[in-house]
UniProtKB/TrEMBL annotation:
Similarity comment text for this entry: Belongs to the Nudix hydrolase family.
Protein name: 8-oxo-dGTP diphosphatase
Pfam family, one: NUDIX
Catalytic activity: 8-oxo-dGTP + H2O = 8-oxo-dGMP + diphosphate + H(+); 8-oxo-GTP + H2O = 8-oxo-GMP + diphosphate + H(+)
GO BP: any one term: DNA replication
Length: 139
């Protein structure tokens, strides 16, 4: 699929949310676009994968955890210089294992009640995901 003449990169992102209202951010490793920026864990959906399949695989690869279920939160599109991305964002409240930076990335738990994360910079498309999540939890 394409947006004008730009191909669309389909991405699955998963917000891990714990019972104390904290969510997890990871720092993009060297060698990727926006290295050093903080993001919600996830990655590109491969051909033939569902959003959930991709999320499960990415969270295993990046964090070493296993998920059995997720809740769809929103779909966002963002036009970066390096790619036009469509982000399928889900919330995960239960997982097995303890999240670790399996690709050498730093991790940081953040309080959703804080207006802004204590780490920066954040990938531009991560902000609207957090706003959506705050909206969902208010209702
Ligand atoms: N995982 C993740 N990706 C995001 C977020 N926000 C956002 O714009 N993106 C964009 O979505 C795309 C995800 O690609 P990625 O580089 O993380 O995917 P990947 O791990 O499969 O990458 P690779 O195939 O280069 O190893 C990037 O273009 C990234 O800039 C976010 O919060 N989390």
């Amino acid at each position: 699929m394409s947006q004008g003449d730009r191909p669309i990169t389909e991405v699955a992102a998963g917000i891990l949310l714990d019972s104390e209202g904290r969510y997890l951010l990871g720092q993009r490793p060297e060698g990727k676009p926006y290295a050093g920026y903080w993001e919600v864990p996830g990655g590109k959906i491969e051909s033939g994968e569902s959003v959930f399949d991709a999320l499960k695989r990415e969270l295993q690869e990046e964090l070493g955890i296993d998920i059995d279920a997720s809740q769809e939160l929103t779909v966002l599109e963002y036009d970066y210089p390096h790619a036009y991305v469509r982000l399928h964002v889900s919330v995960i409240r239960q997982w097995s294992g303890t999240p670790a930076g399996c690709e050498g990335q730093q991790l940081s738990w953040q309080l959703l009640s804080d207006q802004a994360p204590s780490v920066e910079p954040l990938l531009p498309a991560a902000w609207p995901m957090l706003e959506k999540l705050r909206g969902l939890l208010k209702t």
